[in-house]
Amino acid sequence: DWSQDLSMVEIPIGNKSLWRLGVVALTVVAIVFGRVVYLTVFDGGYYAARAGENAAAAQATPAPRGIIYDREGDALVDNKAVFAAVLDSHVFLSQPDAQASALAAAQSILGISSSTLWDELEQSAAQDFATPVVLADNLSQVQLVNLQALALPTIRIESDFERAYPNGPVFASVIGYTGRATQKDIKQDPKLAATDIVGKTGIEAYYNNTLQGTPGVHIQFKNAQGNVLGEKQQSAATLGTSVHLTIDGPLQTYFYSRLANGLSSLGRPIGIGLAMNPQTGEVLSLINLPGYDNNVFSEPSQNSAEIERLLSSSEQPLFDRVVSGDYNPGSTIKPLDGVAILKDGVVTPNREIFSPGYLLVPNQYDPSNPKKYLDWRYQGSVNLTAALAQSSDVYFYVTVGGSPAVTTPPINDASDYGIGGLGISRLFNWWQTFGLGKPTGIDMPNEASGFLPTPDWKKQKMGTSWLLGDTYNVAIGQGDLLLTPLQLLSYIDAIANGGRIYRPFLNASSTPYINEDLTDLTSQIQQVQQGMRATVSSPLGTAYTMNDLPVQTCAKTGSAQIQ
Question: Is 127 in contact with 45 (CB distance < 8 Å)?
């Protein structure tokens, strides 16, 4: 076109082309920048691990966990040196030719199928590509020799430490057990690796950060071809800090044996034992039956059948009933009732109520058929001391719930009338005063809170109103009232020591701490103490069989209708 007019040297091309070129350039820059951000932020961990793996191979040197001792300084656990078979994930995935030999060795020597190995590898890959997989702990001599003979680049043998529990079932409820870190553990603590040993239950879990040692780091420097250029011990493994417990070892052993024998004589497999120092809150003994041998979890590959049995058992041997169980307290709630009715002036300590073995409440729909609330036996006329000693239900029906309506003629003894009763609202406040309905704060995992029923709760959950019979039920520890064994013994300890509810603890280095100070109730508590002493000393007392003990003893028995 220009040749048509030789006088034209140049023509303007406008700004559109420049704008288009700029857009293309900016797009390219944006794509490059976005890719850099993605590789740095989202895949940064992967490529950082890969770069580190190419430059240097860091191998952790296992550290033994701290020792757990009883109050006398006797060791309750031990660390046993063992060898573990570990799959090098990076080598296994980067060398397809070596996979067949690794899978064959895992199957023939370790008894691990190909599908299981791939599943474990997939779970490990969720962390990063270089995470090793522990195939087997505590290799036998035969397994060790056979693996060493193969000298596979994919499966290496590493020294390790295995937790050993000399007294197994006796202390398992307190100590718990350990195991390899799971994805859940790693999510809670990103510093963990799948090869790390962590506490799973009990003291091992609660004080895991204290007990867990710091692994050492041994580094091999490589060139681009993977050849080792040098080695360096970057840091040495550090032993974990030991924990000294308040548990009395001989008492725990004796208590466990006697409780197991007693349950066996009754044909019952399930029971709990708890002993605390009421002056401090120290836990001296903590037992759950049926027990279990926590050593089986130290060698999961060799005890898979037993572990499966423990996990699936209807008796739930792994469930810590002392700390995590909620139960009806039965008549063991009556000492609390006693303090409450005296402090709120419902009755005086000497006020007597007659129990023929039941209490009748008028039935407005059928006057000829009154509702009968049973006592567990004929009690006769009882005051507070006798009511506690003989565990009279009628006494606490009336003093806590209030006397039934008067009829003509009366259907109960005259002594059963004229008492207003504590009522559910004030009773609920007294439950809270004694620390019920919330965790005690013991240094054990998964502590339950119990449950305190209220009229509002019943209305919302069941759509019905709270009735007098509901108050009667919770007054004797039945109905929907639930306590943990820890809450129960903590409040009973306060009756024993004069009103201080201590936080239970197992670590001997802890300082006693008062959760609730109820020493202003000293006079009422002393009256209840008299009733609990009569429970043992009176021939009519429900714990009279303990009267021949060489020490003066107070007690309160209880039987829940729902177990």
Answer: no
